[in-house]
Amino acid sequence: MSKRLTKRYLTSSDKYECPLSADTQAVALEELRETDNARSQALEALRNWLEQNPKIMAIRMDSVFLLRFLRTKKFSVPMAQEAIERYVLLRQSWGIAFNQLDHTLPTMAELIDLGYIFVSPYKDKAGRRVVIYRPGVFDPYKYTNQDMCRVMGICYETLMEDEESQVRGLVHFADGGGVGFPHLTLFTPKEAVRIVKNGERTIPLRHKEIYGVNVHPTVKFALDFGMGLISEKIRKRVRLYTAVEDVQIDKKLLPKEYGGIMPMKDMIELWKKELSEKRGILLLNDKMGVRLEMYSEAAREGAVSALRGNTSCNNDAVGDAMRGLTGNFRKLEVD
Fold first, then answer.
1. First vs last Cα of the chain: how many Å apart?
2. For a tag on the chain, would you pick the N or C end, based on fewer CB atoms within 10 A?
3. Are 80 and 46 in contact (CB under 8 A)?
């Protein structure tokens, strides 16, 4: 095999030993159709496919990585194959958001300390982690859209490494206080379309409940626009409130500043410890890649509409799903 076609395996094909509790395994069976037999067969099938797929240049082969796709696709191997290829192409085409997901970088550390996005140490009654967003602390004159995407990528990629979160999914709580029109200018409407649509279809996370509070009337039109982009399934899980007191969520899951028990600063410090534990694997992900020359020009250039309809890992339609994610956000054009 020529050097150009040599495939790199960034992690080994480990023998999986399920670390999940009996309760979590029951959830996996009921919601994802996951059994020991289904899991072992699907992992073997995915690894065989990755070994034979000429488009894959460098990939992780460990079970935790592959299971994130199998679980979001309820153990449909063809759908998981498509998702993996889309995901790696996305990382490569949209490097500004997916590469260097290092929480110790000065700007990232600053945004995390501000509490722009972090995860509560508590789980809800369904065993799910709660992601807390405070976009109002993001200074649109100081930080860039790339900074915003990268710090969110750090959070999401860290959670993707957690098998409990893979199975049980996530709860989201967002405080829109302080968000104004300048925040909306960080992204053009065309860019927003790509971020939302590709995010929902490509990032292997299960979003179970979404709570929003303090949405200012001046940005409500943007929220309505965003709601129109997401699937009906996710849209039904979004609940908006005027006051924090009205949010139908167990307040102890939230920082003390929102009616909880633990001060926000302490929650953030605990979250930073989790980030430190996963920092190495997140940086290793930068080495994953596909052979861009094996995708059509349209696949490399991008078009959100390519996400619609049937796709197959046997042709360029998988790559087409990522059209629109190359280059700087400001240079992108929508079809």
1. 39
2. N
3. yes
User: What is residue 32's DSSP assignment?
Assistant: H
Which tokens hold the place of 250? 């167990």
**Cα–Cα–Cα angle for 204, 210, 216, rounded to 5 degrees:** 125
Q: Which tokens belong to 52?
A: 């034979």
Q: pTM of the predicted model, to two decimals?
A: 0.85
Neighbours of 216 (CB within 10 A): 14
pLDDT tens column, 143-201: 998 899 899 999 999 999 999 999 999 999 999 887 877 877 777 666 676 667 666 77
Hey, what domains does the chain have and what are their CATH numbers? 8-97+285-299 (no CATH), 106-282 (3.40.525.10)
Where are the alpha helices (H) located in the chain, listed in sequence order?
22-32, 36-52, 63-72, 77-93, 95-98, 106-114, 145-160, 163-168, 181-184, 189-202, 220-227, 232-235, 264-284, 297-301, 317-320
How do residues 231-272 score in pLDDT, each as one tens digit?
788 788 888 888 888 899 999 999 999 999 999 999 999 999
Of 79, 80, 85, 84, the residue nearest 310 (C-alpha) = 79
pLDDT given for residue 324 in this prediction: 30
3-state secondary structure 193-241: HHHHHHHHHHCCCCEEEEEEECCCHHHHHHHHHHHCCCCHHHHCCEEEE
DSSP string, 247-262: --S-GGGS-GGGT-SS
CA pair distance 60, 11, nearest whole angstrom: 5
CB neighbour list of residue 72: distance below 8 Å, 6 or more residues apart: 83, 166, 204, 205, 206
